[in-house]
Amino acid sequence: MREFSQGETIYESGMKDIVGYVVSGAVKLVTFLPDGRSNIIGIIEAPGFFGRIFGVATEFTIEAASNVIVACFERSAFEAQLVADPELEHFIHMENLHQLDEAHERILVLACTSVIERVSTFMVLKLLAGSDEDRKAGVVHVPINRRDFAAYLATTEESVSRSIQALVRRGTIAVINSANFRILKRADLIAISRQDEDYLREMVRSRGGKKPAGPVASAAWRDSYGARRAESATGTIVTAE
């Protein structure tokens, strides 16, 4: 396991290709434009995988969106283990489908015509996909800071702040802290988002809501992986402590 502080680079082009498993926190997938500007093209929260398997090298820079704990594996060794472990292979398949569904949700958010609609749609989706406890309490967790949140929504930090303040003044939401919000008027938030709640609910339901931790979260699995890797000499785990 390795710990990374918010903003640290976990992987970038030119480094040895890895597969990473986010144990806690969140990472962001970043691309850079020729003029030096950056785009956040994805957020992966724990539990979740990043990295390309059985394909070309990862073309994104992976940065810690918050303080994170990540298990990193050399890609060739992980691919060999994937072939030998049907449970892991199934989990990776489901993870890929989950990330594809999240990409569809982001497209829906970015299709909104105003920033306040994007913020509201994002919060409704996060609420519907949250734990039973969070849904009951109306709590929404935003796993990234305000600047990254604005970049994720393809707008400015000032526009996001104005939208959140407008929702607070309406009594629609309350700010718990910089990363957590409480939905006070769910129907109002959905109305502002201009989305169909049944459609959003079905979208979240189809991907099964919150992901299970999966086999890699198990210390026993990692120990077994290390032992089998050493026996077969298929590769090296970058970090497995």
TrEMBL record:
Check the record and name the InterPro entries matching this protein.
cNMP-bd_dom, cNMP-bd_dom_sf, HTH_CRP, RmlC-like_jellyroll, WH_DNA-bd_sf
Which keywords does this Swiss-Prot/TrEMBL entry list? DNA-binding, Transcription, Transcription regulation
Single GO biological process annotation from the record: regulation of DNA-templated transcription
* Gene Ontology MF terms: DNA binding
Q: Does the keyword Transcription regulation apply?
A: yes
- Pfam families linked: cNMP_binding (PF00027), HTH_Crp_2 (PF13545)
Q: Which domain of life is it from?
A: Bacteria
Which named protein is this? HTH crp-type domain-containing protein
User: What organism does this protein naturally occur in?
Assistant: Devosia riboflavina
